[in-house]
UniProtKB/TrEMBL annotation, chain B:
The chain crosses the membrane at residues 29-47, 59-77, 105-128, 140-165, 171-192, 228-249. Residues 23-252 form the ABC transmembrane type-2 domain. Keywords: Cell membrane, Membrane, Transmembrane, Transmembrane helix, Transport. This is Transport permease protein.
Length: 309, 257
């Protein structure tokens, strides 16, 4: 079953900017889906339309089969939204914010309080329940918005840059939380600038640029498109000249660091055999850039207006 | 959204609004109490004793209904305009827009929240006035009806103002340059029958004249204008303002791209 179906969605703002130029998108139930794109590509506009914060100019949006035009209420009951910017009353208490949000969905107060406790505990905010939201740290505010988005127990959770400005430890714990609720059956759509995040969490991906979808496939299929991967090798001893590596491009970054571009047709074993034969001892190795990042940059560059065929 | 769920959502907004203005009571409930006490002391006791009777009542008794109405008007309006604009300003309006709440629930929730504050302040001012004069209720039903309708009308006015407001200055322009002059010239402190014919006719174009007089009729039994025509006019304005505000909300004016 489709959790989200978008057909020929267009949006032109009052100032004439065409943010969406007829996008089509389908997210299956239970998926963990990444929507990526550079700044101003149309990600937030798409999410804005789906979450009813932006009026669309044309096209159709359905959530679990409920049209946003004709079955708005049913469609809205199915989604929870975690926006990019903090959008709660800074003077309200943490607990009240979550309980009030439940009330907006028609959830009676006793059940709302029960759910608020459940999600605030799960997100590590229960101890802060009586604090004014403005006193929370940035990471806590993000988690508060997740608790708020979950309180009506939506089937589809949309997160717009949920880990922006969050430290690494907290980001990892948010990843664990999101993975767990996805495994429990919740469909998740995520936009992020951290491509590592998309790569490690999401099964399917769409890349949007200049208001159009330039790629929409599974993460695995997308990563298979990567023809060359660049690795950085830390050598055991400083060297003066780079090794001769047939079939590989690269060279010394400095006396003790080697950078090698490995084509998909070559195995890493071949590289290490060649290095060992020339007495180069490798202590550690890492990707020069995240694999998805390399692809993302390539796809977006291809889509630059001036470079279109 | 089912009717029962809409009721829960509506009560959530009303409760949230009441929680907001009671949390900041030194800004919302205390100032009108102090201001109106000063009016009672200065205009009622000190100056009023030199003015003598007006409309068959001593001056203090005459101005009390007008001052109560002034409090209701200012606070109903002020509550909704500041609360809804803050909601826009902090983007917490998005909490409501993403929910399945229909626009009429959002609008009615904010309006009733504003009415509660207006009427609560009206009650506080009424109780304070009892320290200065005696009030007897001549027409209870008319008094209550006028207060409710006036509070609703100005709460709706505040909502419409907040929809169009883009900055904090915009929410003080209407109260300062329109509402306050109309209130002061709306027969709170004098009977418009005292005015020369031309200014009396001009005053009849001021909608607040009808509200103050209808309320005064309910309390004292005297009015400069036809009370039932006043009630009909207020009802008409309430319906018109409600439909306009609902249309703005459905369109997403000022709140949705």
């Amino acid at each position: 079953m489709s959790a989200l179906t978008i057909r020929n969605l267009t949006k032109t703002y009052a100032n004439g900017v065409q943010a969406l130029k007829g996008i089509d998108l389908e997210v299956q139930k239970g998926d963990f889906f990444a929507l990526l794109g550079p700044n101003g590509a149309g990600k937030s506009t798409t999410i804005g339309v789906v979450s009813s914060l932006v009026n669309k100019s044309g096209g159709d949006v359905s959530i679990f089969g409920h049209s946003l035009d004709t079955q708005r209420s049913q469609a809205k009951m199915k989604i929870g939204v975690v926006p990019q910017e903090f959008n709660f009353n800074q003077f309200e208490k943490v607990f009240d914010i979550v309980v009030t949000q439940a009330g907006f969905y028609g959830i009676p107060a006793p059940l709302a309080r029960e759910r608020a406790e459940k999600y605030l505990r799960q997100l590590g905010l229960w101890e802060k329940r009586d604090k004014q939201s403005r006193t929370l740290s940035g990471g806590m505010k993000r988690r508060l918005m997740i608790a708020r988005a979950l309180v009506h127990e939506p089937e589809l959770l949309i997160l717009d840059e949920p880990t922006a400005g969050v430290d690494i430890e907290l980001r990892r714990s948010m990843w664990d939380f999101l993975t767990r609720i996805n495994q429990e059956g919740k469909t998740i759509i995520l936009t992020t600038h951290y491509l590592e995040e998309a790569e490690s969490l999401c099964r399917n991906i769409a890349i949007i640029d200049h208001g159009t979808i330039v790629e929409n496939t599974s993460m695995r299929a997308l990563l298979e498109k990567l023809q060359v991967e660049t690795f950085v090798l830390d050598l055991a001893r400083p060297v003066e000249t780079a090794p001769v590596l047939e079939g590989f491009d690269g060279g010394l970054r400095d006396a003790q660091t080697l950078e090698v571009a490995v084509p998909k047709t070559q195995s890493l074993n071949t590289l290490f055999v060649a290095l060992a034969e020339q007495q180069f001892e490798v202590m550690s190795m890492r990707n020069k850039a995240n694999r998805l990042e390399e692809l993302f940059v390539r796809l977006v560059e291809q889509n630059l207006p001036g470079e279109k065929a | 959204m089912k009717a029962r769920d809409q009721w829960v959502a509506f009560m959530t907004i009303v409760t949230k609004e009441i929680r907001r203005f009671t949390r900041i009571w030194p800004q919302t409930l205390l100032p009108p109490a102090i201001t109106m006490t000063l009016y009672f002391v200065i205009f009622g006791n000190l100056i009023g004793s030199r003015i003598g009777d007006m409309g068959g009542f001593d001056y203090m008794q005459y101005i009390v209904p007008g001052l109560i109405m002034m409090s209701v008007i200012q606070n109903s309006y002020g509550n909704v305009v500041s609360s809804f604009f803050s909601t826009k300003f902090q983007h917490s309006i998005e909490e409501m827009l993403v929910s399945p709440m229909p626009p009429h629930v959002i609008l009615t929730g904010f309006v009733v929240g504003g009415m509660v504050r207006g009427m609560l302040v009206g009650l506080i001012v009424s109780l304070l006035s009892l320290f200065f004069t005696h009030l007897s209720m001549q027409h209870l039903l008319i008094t209550v009806t006028v207060v409710i309708l006036t509070a609703a009308l100005f709460a709706l006015g505040g909502f419409i103002n907040a929809v169009f407001a883009n900055k904090f200055d915009d929410i003080s322009i209407v109260p300062t340059f329109i509402l306050t002059p109309l209130t002061y010239l709306g027969g709170v402190f004098y009977s418009i029958d005292l005015l020369p014919e031309f200014w009396r006719t001009v005053s009849l174009a001021n909608p607040i004249v009808y509200m103050v007089n209808a309320f005064r009729y309910g309390v004292l039994g005297v009015s400069d204008v036809n009370v039932y025509a006043s009630l009909a006019a207020i009802c008409g304005f309430v319906v018109a303002f409600y439909l306009f505000a609902l249309w703005l909300l459905r369109r997403g004016t000022g709140i949705r791209h």
